[in-house]
Specification:
single chain, alpha/beta, nine-stranded mixed beta sheet, 6 helices, globular
Length: 228
């Protein structure tokens, strides 16, 4: 199994997905856009593409021209029927690549908040838990791409998860989170913790390790679904 990870900053890695990849003997390759020699493969060589998070906006193409190439890569992979997973910025990139709008959310959402399954998802789609508490760290949101089905919502952000066809899932939330990544986010992105109704304190964000388990289980289920 060839997994291609699109990584936008050094401190937002694959988190709990690493165990899933290792257990299945996957060969994990990285396109690290924060490195000068970042290269994208032929999408046809990939069994799974995972687009990770990052503090930039998908609309920053003038300052970060590699966003144009990345969106074209994601669009091509989706057209070819390759399984694609986007997390946070990655979900926004999928939406933008498919022509949907990405814009500021009504409120920044940074912290541990519940996500619940959307009503009337329909047969054949991934089934999210009725309710699960997950970590969020974002200030923007996306319109659903044409033909996509809403899977989950939170109180602060309606579009938390979507599915397009049988091989594309976008997650605004962070079920892959681990304590190490949260520690790094607090060190690198503390300036984003401006007071607001949906922004928690550093102490609240650095939750007990057991808080991560439901999200990590959900993350594994999403991967199983995409590669079933």
């Amino acid at each position: 199994m060839h997994v291609q990870v699109l990584q936008h900053v050094s401190f937002e890695g694959v988190g709990s997905m690493a165990e899933w990849f290792q257990a299945r003997g996957a060969a994990v390759h990285y396109t690290r856009f924060f490195e000068a020699d970042a290269r994208l493969p032929d999408p046809a060589s990939c069994d799974l593409i995972v687009a990770m998070g990052g503090p930039m906006s998908v609309n920053d193409e003038a300052e970060l021209p590699w966003l144009i190439e990345e969106k074209a890569f994601l669009r091509q992979a989706i057209e070819q029927g390759i399984p694609v997973l986007g997390i946070c910025l990655g979900a926004q990139l999928i939406a933008s690549a498919l022509g949907a709008r990405v814009q500021p959310n009504a409120q920044a959402e940074i912290g541990w908040f519940p996500v619940w399954r959307a009503e009337s998802v329909g047969e054949g789609y991934f089934v999210c838990p009725d309710r699960v508490e997950l970590l969020h760290w974002h200030g923007e949101t996306f319109d659903l791409p044409e033909g996509a089905r809403l899977l989950a919502s939170s109180e602060a952000c309606r579009h938390q998860a979507f599915q397009l066809g049988q091989r594309v899932i976008g997650l605004q939330c962070h079920p892959e989170m681990t304590p190490v990544i949260v520690t790094d986010l607090l060190a690198e992105c503390a300036n984003e913790l401006q007071p607001g109704p949906w922004v928690q304190t550093p102490a609240q964000l650095a939750a007990e390790p057991r808080t991560y388990l439901p999200g990590n289980v959900l993350m594994a289920r999403v991967l199983d679904y995409l590669l079933d």
